[in-house]
Amino acid sequence: MKTEDLVDIYFKDRGFSSVVGKVGNLGLVKDKDYLYRTQVETGIKNLETIPDQKGENSPRWVERVEIKCSQCQKIIELTPYNSENQENYFCSLKCSGEWRSINCRGENNPIFGRADEIWTPAMRLKAAENAVIRLKELNFSKKPTKPQLMTNDLLDDMCVNYENEYDCKYYLIDNYLTDYNLMIEVMGNFFHCSPVMNLENSRKTKIIGKDKAKHTYIKKYKSIEVLYLWEKDINENIDVCGSLVEQYIKNNGILENYHSYNYYLNDGKLKLIDNLYVIGY
Fold it and tell me: What is the CATH number of the domain that holds 198?
């Protein structure tokens, strides 16, 4: 309670200063939760007494200048300072992105021909390493995809020990088979651009390039050919995936082809399809 209430209720025969002095001598302090509550309540009351200072009511308010959005021509209001320090203005991130996609391509891009100068190979490697560190800090146990969960279940049923999100410095591997020094990647149909399904992904070239770079790095520095289990096969041909994992382990990581979409089962035996799909790695 407030010190005033304490004196009024329990020490009516003592002066306020006397009680405060005694409290100090005894080293008594108020409860922290009580102090926090009173500070919050006082802060809210003080805020309620402050007049509205938004917009034109702000003491720092300056008159706005009307300018057209460079993309959609919508009228926007800017401070004189902001209206004088750039060439193009946008009412939203969407308009900004649309305008830049048209006007900052090719030679019009301010870093055209200077990408390697501004974004050096060493910087790219460091960024990749930092990305892996950030990903490892996430709690993957709560965020696996359905195909990843099904792959984990498959390995559990086969009594194969594994580690999810295995750190390879610049890359993370979905499943590292700890007893065999082998690796499995779970590939989403759309995100990794399955050649079987021909899904329209505008970033196809970039994504396949990154997956190819990851494959090259693992093969070069870990001496491992990665087995790729694709979402469509995990969902529709889990027996093929299981047989493929079994053969992958039995052959110490050596297979004719490392993509599950190129296999089928015939009388319980793995067979390659006649016309193999080639993705580039």
Answer: 3.40.960.10
Query: Are 183 and 82 contained in the same domain?
Result: no
Query: Does 181 have pLDDT greater than 60?
Result: yes
CA 81, 83, 87, 92 dihedral sign is positive
Percent of the chain, pLDDT > 90? 53
Q: Could you tell me if 74 and 23 lie in one domain?
A: no
> How far apart are the C-alpha atoms of 180 and 145, rounded to whole Å?
24
Domain of 20?
A: 3-49
Distance of alpha carbon 149 from alpha carbon 126, whole angstroms:
30
Q: Is 242 left (phi over 0), alpha (psi -120 to 50) or beta?
A: alpha
- Distance, in Å, from the CA atom of 16 to the CA atom of 4, rounded to the nearest integer, reads 7
Residues 157 and 255 in one domain: yes
Cβ partners under 8 Å of residue 161, min gap 6: 177, 178, 179
Q: Which two tokens stand for residue 258?
A: 């490392």
How much is the pLDDT for 47?
77
| Residue 116 maps to a domain | no
Residue 146 has a pLDDT of 93
Question: How many domains in the chain?
Answer: 3
Angle between helices 238-250 and 146-157 (to 10 degrees): 50
Query: What pLDDT is stored for residue 140 in this prediction?
Result: 52
Could you tell me if 164 and 234 lie in one domain?
A: yes
pLDDT of residue 127: 77
